[in-house]
Amino acid sequence: MMFPQKTRPVDNPPSSPAHDMAPYAAPKRGIAPQDIATYHRIDLPGLEDKKWQWDLRGQEDSYLGNYDFNGKRVLEFGAANGGLTFWMERQGAEVVAVDLSPDVARTSWDTLVGPEDNVSETKRVMSETMQRLNNGFWYAHEQRGSKARLVHGTAYEVPNELGRFDVVTLGSILLHLRDPLGALENAISFTSKSVIITDAVPHFIGEDLQHLPLAYFMPDKSRRTPHGGWTWWQMTAEVYLRFLALKGFRIISNTSGLYKHRAGPQKLYTLVAERV
Prior knowledge:
Elements: E1 54-55, H1 60-63, E2 73-77, H2 83-90, E3 94-99, H3 119-144, E4 149-152, E5 165-171, H4 180-188, E6 191-200, E7 215-217, E8 233-235, H5 237-246, E9 249-261, E10 264-275
Parallel strand pairs: 2-3, 2-5, 3-4, 5-6
Antiparallel strand pairs: 1-9, 6-10, 7-8, 9-10
């Protein structure tokens, strides 16, 4: 896969009417709970019976490496319905969230299309899923009275006009990407200081091998979903530790813990790194 060349992000642009609009998505209001999807469980009226993928309530701090977000400008990749977005905002952060849009021609997630796949149906379901996740973000945004901003883009490309950030976060995102190192390289180009990566501890790689920089290729036709989404890779933390060191970062912390997923507790690691 080829990705467009990027220039270094500009300094934070001044506040102006134009800046308040582009390149940010226009907020939506009055969305009904039945029109949303919930990826991160969130306590809001009307969502009590919604199905969720992750319930990070009460563990957000450890999930994000016990980082001090107060007064920080944050670029969050993969906001979904905003469970972590609004938590970071409550800690005192100014958050710009990045996620896909229903326009799958412009912001598709990485798919692996086989000869037997109905591409049109895959795109339709993908678009519908993203619409419901975007709706979930704006529903919570309105309920929380949030000032967070949403930008539609991919992990490989977001607008340079967003400026510089104190920290970028990639929470359980890299495992879903065809080129996780390309996405990480793009993400860290936006940070003046810190990056936080949370990802799955590879359960197909033995404990005695976790200290090595190894990757396990995950796609399996038996686990294909209608929207075409995949878990592409499980990477040991050592892959990202070495990559970040090569890019001029030093590791501040490397922790792991169990987090509540709908399929049962999942072990994740969290890396916090800073520019040297």
